[in-house]
Fold this protein.
Amino acid sequence: MNKKISKAIKYILSASLAFALLYFSFRDVQWPEFRESLKTCRWEFVVLSMAAGAFAFWLRGLRWRKLLLPIDDSITNVTAFNGVNIGNVSNFIFPRIGEFVRCGVITRRSAPAEDGSGQKKASYEKVLGTVVLERSWELLVMLLLLAVVVIGGFERFGSFFVAEILTPMSQKLNFSIWWLAFILVAVCAALLYALWRFRKTSAFCKRIWGIFQGIYQGFASCMKMDQKWLFFAYTAAIWMMYWLMAASTVWAAPFLEGLDLIDALFLSLVGGLGFAVPVPGGIGAFHFIIGLTLSVVYGIPMEVGIIYATLSHTSQAITQILFGLGSYAYEALKK
């Protein structure tokens, strides 16, 4: 009963956060103008964005299967694809539960172990390990791309960060920017040392340290993998699809004609951070962070940026739900 109450509380808090973010995102929206702006959108580009999202799901299934093959070579591309889709739609029910649900899909379809123990080759624990590796690698690639985009486009993104955040902060605290940077690095180093020092005695430190370990292990495992070039090729293709999804949505919105492909990539990366917030399906968090980014970085009014965020999130949510329900029906009917 305690576990059920704990899960219920977590879900209530998660849903409350989503509704709060939705409220702050849409509170200044003028609904007649919102509807008129949607009518002017080029819907053929929205369809292109949805197609790119669907192809990204297939590529994610192929990449995940690369990690599953050493465990059980009987896992098919279709099963891995269905696992990804069912996991995606599960996240709309409870945040982050999709990563565990898709492990169950693979374990259910796995072949029996050859030792006669009655266990599956791809046990739940082993499959969960591949998910940790995959998601850790995904997070690492996203952060690297974000760093490259910000540094490469410093005049567009970094200068704003310095002028509007670091400089005012340094003036208020009577410190130089370099002192702030030094203090930030020192604090990060101290936190990392504390996590390492108390990783065996503190459950919180152990969990956070485990995330860093997962990122390192995911990178190390990919470097030792057979045909690693194929894993990297899948990763590159997946991010190309993410980029195309964002670019297509920008092309669909006439009120964002001033944005180019680099801006679309930046929005895609920032949107990925929005999905990291523990709310069902990124609802609210994605809208808020995208609307805020368009407002702060590009000077586009928040109520206009929310139109893009709604268009992008809703189209991808529909794609995830359709493919998720289709994959669930396939797996349920398959003997």
In short: The mean pLDDT is 81. The CA atoms of residues 135 and 247 lie 24 Å apart. The first helix runs from residue 2 to 26. DSSP finds 13 helices and no strands in the chain.
